[in-house]
Amino acid sequence: MRPPHRHTPRRRTAYRRAPREIDGLPRRVQAEIDRLERTRNYLYSGSVTDAVLRWQEFARSPARTLWDLRDADLEFYCCGDPFAARELLAFVEQALSRPAARALRAVLAEADARWEW
Q: Domain of life, per the record (predicted)?
């Protein structure tokens, strides 16, 4: 006779977002950014990718040409502050190795040229 079947409870895993990659960034650089996000207390998993996407989206937006937003007292509650995102990326560039920082700057070059950062 077979022993009664016991259901073992499934281990619950913490919610984790699927890792996203930055277009045009080599995997080696993405791995260095991931390592940096794990070791720095001012970064969280995916914060650099979020900042890159926020800055690129803002730079491509036609609304950016309406005002000089650097001097305005605007709050970006809906989608995050693109200028704070760019400042975060400047800190990340300094923390990365030279080749990785160069690759990140190459990805950000188009958005920076549109905004004239």
A: Bacteria
36 lies in some domain? no
d(CA 71, CA 53): 22
Q: What is the pLDDT of residues 47-84, one digit of tens each?
A: 999 999 999 988 888 765 555 555 555 666 667 788 88
How many C-beta atoms lie closer than 10 Å to residue 91's C-beta? 14
CA dist., res. 56 & res. 99, Å (int): 21
**String of DSSP letters for 49-111:** HHHHHHHHHHHH-GGGGTS-TTTS----TTT--HHHHHHHHHHHHHHS-HHHHHHHHHHHHHH
pTM beyond 0.70: yes
> What's the total number of domains in the chain?
1
